[in-house]
Prior knowledge:
A hairpin with a 5-residue loop joins strand 3 and strand 4. This protein has helices at about 10-20, 25-35, 35-50, 70-85, 90-100, 105-115, 180-190, 215-225, 240-255, 265-280, 290-295, and strands at about 5-10, 140-145, 155-160, 165-170, 195-200, 230, 315-320, 325, 330-335, 340-350, 350-355, 360-365, 370-375. With about 375 residues, the chain is of the alpha+beta class. It has three domains: about 5-60 and about 305-375, no CATH class; about 70-120, no CATH class; about 140-295, 2-Layer Sandwich (Nucleotidyltransferase, domain 5), CATH 3.30.420.10. Helix 1 packs antiparallel against helix 2 and helix 5 (about 90-100) crosses helix 6 (about 105-115). About 30% of the residues lie in helices and about 20% in strands.
Amino acid sequence: xxxRTMDVSEQRVRFVVAAxxxxxxxxxxxxxxxxxxxxxxxxxxxxxxxxxxxxxxRSRRPVSSPTRTAERIEHRIVALRKERPDWGARKxxxxxxxxxxxxPAATVHRILLRYGLVRVEDRHRHALxxxxxxxxxxxxxxxxxxxxxxxKPVGPLSVIDDASRYVIALEGTWTTCAEAVQERLTAAFIExxxxxxxxxxxxxxxxxxxxxxxxSQLTVWLMKQDIRLHFCAIRHPQTQGKVERFHGxxxxxxxxxxxxxxxxxxxxxxxxxxxxxxxxxxEALEMKTPASIxxxxxxxxxxxxxDWVYPxxxxxxxxxxxxxxxxxxxxxxxxxxxxxxxxxxxxxxxxIEVFYRxxxxxxxxxSSHGSTAVEPWLENPxx
Length: 383
């Protein structure tokens, strides 16, 4: 059976499902979801006309001479810059402040310029507005660094907390094999607890290009830990801005400090992670360190997670070992990765929304005998 996929906002899907059920007033429902009544009616009308595909998420691209400093202080600035060649004037100014030397970052920058310690490509203004989750562990971003310079098939695996920029993990798996990634994530979960959600790109091993909806064994393992999964749009790295900027800092450190021999790469990564979390001031955090903002999650890792508890009176069905749903005398392929799992059906007239745990994975249209795989989507792509 042919299937198609789409990107869809979970908030919109849950709104139209709730709106088609008896219960609270429409105004109260809109208030609960934090939207206006006109927006609510718009989503509902679109859903009734075209189903889940009609309320799919759409692109929203962002509208994008003083007294000379004492020579001893200048020499200290030069020494700090040479010690940390990938740190800019703002971060060096914080280090100087901790040493009892109060200098504006602009002054530090001018001194670096005078000594020829600022490269042309570094002379740019940074964006002033940042988007981030409010609290630590609400969202972690995960990605592989480019293999450039590492002489490996793939660069280090990075996991970054969105709110604090704390580096949860920086591991040289040197492979995208699911088993290796799961092993590193398990260690991170044991050490740091579980996030509420994770954001990844459409890459291996957390995305399966050959499966409807993209689910892989690794993503199902994450979902069983009750972690909501979001995937950024294809060719839209801005969605993973935090981990991309971290990779930029990592790349700069590699170029300016140099890498040791391959057998010492992980030791170098461990040292860089410790410095980044505990010593390096972060401009997006008002020059605080990530470690001063981040705290361990209160959600512990469960080696053997309990079975998911669906709502009382929910319509539940067991998928076959091949991930097929038997319904109304027909076979509906859902996802081979979810073979043997239990799913919940929500019926809205001639449409059936299929949920695995709290995630919408497929829509079945009984009138057209069509089936649509639904891809999870980050609600705010500017993050």
